[in-house]
Write a structure and sequence with these properties.
It is a multi-pass membrane protein. The protein is an all-alpha fold and 261 residues long. Helices cover 74% and strands 0% of the residues. It is built from 14 helices and no strands.
Length: 261
Amino acid sequence: MFGLALATIYPMLFTLNVAMKSRREYVLDRFSLADQVTAANIAEAWNSSGLGRYTVNSVVVTAGAVALLLLLGSMAGFAFSQLTFRGRRWLFLVCLGALMIPFQVIMVPFFRVLGQTGLLDTHFGLILAYTGQFLPFTIFLMTSFYSRIPAEVVEAARVDGSTTLGVYRRIMLPLGLPALLSVGILNALFCWNDVLISLLVMQSEHNRTLMVGVTALRGQYSDNIPLFAGGVLVAALPVIAIYLFFQRQITDGVTAGATKG
């Protein structure tokens, strides 16, 4: 466990140390400690490379995708776990099958469909792309969670006169808040860290997400590694903060479908 922890923490400490160095310090000795603690590279990466605009793009897209994923995923999870309708089992198996299809397999038809519908290089197009990519995972976890709720709860609500929508809104959503929080955090991390889908959808520079913008720094400032490391830290800080504050919820989300009952 100590070795695993060290292998995880060392790259972050190394990046932080490099970001504190000047270009000359890094060229002379990349592994030595920085002479002084300074945020000059982080500030320059933020101000001169458009990372502020990219951060806004990432926040908008991530928030929109997570909201849509939670809405559709919770509704589908409720339907698959508590409702009876024709083809329910087969539809759920289709969702599970979609989990096994890597995005690289559908990249070409995906790109053509977005182009034909005019959704390329738009925030809404990227939100829909993330929703389609991560919805099977969301449905699987929400179905697993809602399956633990006794069917008698739904039957009692129906006896009291609640409609299906009323059961979902008044009972399932409040009961599902822990799972929704866990799945929302996981999806936010997936969307925030994505490079491939965003790079494919967002064609213009001003629409880039943060991770794509940081990746572009490596080519734009290939001889200034400390500046690139500063950009990496800017992109990583929100993710690190989420992990530190929501460790329990992330763990619960990962293990949500491991057991039943």
